[in-house]
């Protein structure tokens, strides 16, 4: 086969696969180069195995309330069974992604790729060059680990899925998505779990009611939270790892996990040979059409540092193919992205937080807190939280924040009316579905409190 292509994609993850497939569908000759496994982070060691493990961990909560419904459950958990079942499922998905690429004629090259010029890509193991009219960099991101003494003793989300055995205890550093999701997973599976975070509350940037609500939920599930502290060093301590904190305390843990963010995969990629510029944060700088400072090179997904979410990478890959190979110049709208934190309790959000909305003029806040019906027969006191933020007097819906069972599924559907600039009156027109948690969103009568001229009134 000739080594000249219309498009060479580097990285067969969420963004790269969609772009390659769409470009090939539009008649382009396409190769995708992947150094690890087809499917990328989301399929192999991100969203998919994470959600499967979240499901596994949630049985604990179900067992907790089971007796209130008359069930007696004598349960035990086997980690190797879960790991093997996960591996089977992601291998199935990997094959599905591979055949979805092959069907429209995309050539899959298993190798590490380097950019060597505006139209050339070098294959490291194969030691040959590909010539491409266009190059798409879709190399994703990799875990950042603070370079502290003994950091090699820690793991990241990459290793967490395939630990040979569950540790008796785990210390997780970070306060973002990965830290709280994995804390939920490990705690739910019976591991003594501690989060250590340098800030004063998990999930910086999320709405305060979501942050505090999840914080309470984590504590309720026995997760310990150490705030305003970092890990200074790690050392071996028998079979355990001793972590020394910034306050001087040292404690042993069965495992230590860094969930301290992810860096775009740009290092050693040869981008400078083609004059591709980076942002100050080290991501590839792109315009609204994902074009870099080198006109023949585009970039999508996590490597561009826009929103590190699979559906966003997929949309960027798709619109790149539309723009370059289907004569349909189209830019992704990043302004209203629904997102979920698959912790326990779960969070789903879209649009402005209350703090952001309060600086945007006069807004009304509708807030409901109640015990999820599933818990009402038990002694569990945990509250579900639903918050709707609208322009004043029944105007446009600006934000929706949900904490509790089904939050992610609800927010996906709320994204539809919000994308159509729905108002509170539009929500009110919907007939409630009873009994459900979501019915709260269409039955709010008066605002719980409002902001006028930036000041909170009532509540
Ligand atoms: C633990 C975890 C959980 C997550 N959960 C969610 C979630 O629930 N929902 C959600 O929306 N997002 C989630 N994400 C984020 C999501 O996985 C990413 O946003 C998404 O995978 C980004 O896609 P991408 O195409 O940019 O990169 P990736 O999917 O990372 O793909 C990049 C690919 O490029 C390959 N590659 C890199 N360099 C080279 C090279 N030089 N040569 C050849 N190949 C190369 C890599 O091996 C990789 O396969 C999660 C991430 C993690 C880590
Ligand atoms: N459910 C989902 O959709 C989902 C799940 C997982 C990941 N993701 C995506 O992946 C991205 C990366 O996730 P993440 O949790 O790794 O990153 P994050 O940016 O959400 O959180 C990183 C955390 O590490 C802390 N931190 C950073 N540097 C540190 C240091 N030197 N010392 C101590 N703490 C430090 C930060 O304060 C922050 O709390 C997310 O932003 C998200 O876009 C999404």
Automatic annotation (TrEMBL):
The keyword Flavoprotein applies. The keyword Disulfide bond applies. Pfam families: Pyr_redox_2 (PF07992), Pyr_redox_dim (PF02852). Residues 337-443 form the Pyridine nucleotide-disulphide oxidoreductase dimerisation domain. Its EC number is 1.8.1.7. SUPFAM superfamilies: FAD/NAD(P)-binding domain, FAD/NAD-linked reductases, dimerisation (C-terminal) domain. Residues 5-317 form the FAD/NAD(P)-binding domain. One of its GO terms (molecular function) is glutathione-disulfide reductase (NADPH) activity. Its cofactor is FAD. Keywords: Disulfide bond, FAD, Flavoprotein, Oxidoreductase, Redox-active center. Belongs to the class-I pyridine nucleotide-disulfide oxidoreductase family. PANTHER family: GLUTATHIONE REDUCTASE. This is Glutathione-disulfide reductase. The gene is gorA.
